[in-house]
Design brief:
This protein is mainly beta and about 300 residues long. It has a single domain (about 60-295), classed as Pectate Lyase C-like, CATH 2.160.20. It has helices at about 1-25, 50-55; strands at about 25-30, 55-65, 70, 75, 80-85, 90, 100, 110, 115-120, 125-130, 135, 140-145, 145-150, 155-165, 170-175, 185-195, 200, 205-210, 215, 220-225, 225-230, 235, 240-245, 250-255, 260, 265, 270-275, 280, 290-295. The chain has a 20-stranded parallel beta sheet that branches. A nine-stranded parallel beta sheet has the order 4-7-10-13-15-17-20-23-26. Strand 1, helix 2 (about 50-55) and strand 2 form a beta-alpha-beta unit. The longest helix has 23 residues, at about 1-25. It starts with a helix and ends with a strand. About 40% of the residues are buried.
Length: about 300
């Protein structure tokens, strides 16, 4: 009897462990400035950090913020929504990246209502290594010494940055030269980028820009070293060079764009700058000129 009972009890213990682990993850979890990562991350017993909450959140679930606080650095390996819920939710880091996204090629990651601060020594605000889709919505970046948002993707993927403000750093949004299959696309809508070295930079892939402001970026506002950037209904003011396309395969398209008080409105990089013929300029030290015209349907 004892010989039969022991395997049964062992199986029961294993089954209970699996049930407990499954129960530990919820579709929605919570963090609070006065939480504790030993908690289950429920609304009434929230966690302290994003890293503590994500392990207790199911894939494609949501982490919400109960009250203001700094919730630390995080690596995301699955589809997830992190929403600050208007509570001054911050990821404050020093000497490292704030959020690294290393999700699956079909995963969607949404970062909303968050403040990313590098406190003068943080590296990247958001570093995207892999994901299917990333949405960065109503977020603020400051204090990073490298990039506010970097795409270093090894797979095809698409990123939307909207209703956000990026201040400082070497680069605002950059698609770097990491090789990978398929298209890389970024959409930038209703975004302000100020005080960076280069606001938008691509070495491959494509960036679409609409209704955005580029101000006081010391080197370039828009730089297509390779790949392409299209800018629609946006403003360039007090930048070094507002628009540059390099001969190494860069292309920039401009439509209904205003150039004010830049050192150079259109740079002489040797690439292709295509105009819709409806742009405006005033008080730029070097005017420059497009070298191609958009087709009209």
């Amino acid at each position: 009897m004892k010989r039969l009972l022991k395997p049964f009890l062992a199986a029961l213990v294993v089954s209970f462990a699996f049930a407990t682990a499954a129960h530990a993850q919820a579709t929605r979890t919570w963090v609070s400035g006065v939480g504790d990562d030993a908690n289950p991350c429920s609304r009434t017993a929230p966690c302290k950090t994003f890293a503590g909450a994500i392990s207790k959140t199911t894939p494609n679930g949501q982490i919400s913020v109960l009250d203001p606080g700094g919730f630390g650095a995080l690596t995301i390996t699955k589809g997830i929504i992190i929403d600050g819920d208007g509570e001054l939710a911050s990821s404050l880091v020093a000497g490292t990246n704030a959020i690294v996204i290393a999700a699956g090629p079909t995963d969607t990651v949404i970062l909303r209502n968050l403040h990313f601060s590098g406190i003068g020594s943080g590296l990247d605000g958001v570093l995207i290594n892999s994901a299917g889709n990333v949405i960065i919505d109503h977020c603020t970046f400051d204090g990073f010494i490298s990039n506010d948002i970097e795409l270093s993707m090894t797979n095809s993927g698409f990123v939307l940055v909207q209703n956000s403000t990026l201040v400082g750093g070497s680069q605002g949004v950059v698609i770097d030269g990491t090789s990978g299959p398929g298209p890389i696309g970024v959409a930038v809508k209703d975004v302000t980028i100020q005080g960076t070295g280069t606001a938008l930079h691509t070495l491959r892939g494509h960036i679409d820009v609409m209704h955005s402001m580029f101000q006081n970026n010391s080197s370039y506002a828009v730089h297509a070293e390779a790949g392409s950037i299209n800018v629609e209904s946006s403003v360039f003011s007090y930048n070094g060079t507002a628009v540059q396309a390099d001969a190494s395969g860069g292309l920039v398209g401009i439509s209904n764009v205003d150039f004010f008080n830049n050192t150079a409105a259109i740079g002489s990089g040797g690439g292709t700058v295509v105009s819709a013929g409806n742009n405006h300029r005033i008080a730029n030290t070097i005017v420059g000129a497009p070298n191609d015209q958009m087709g009209v349907y």
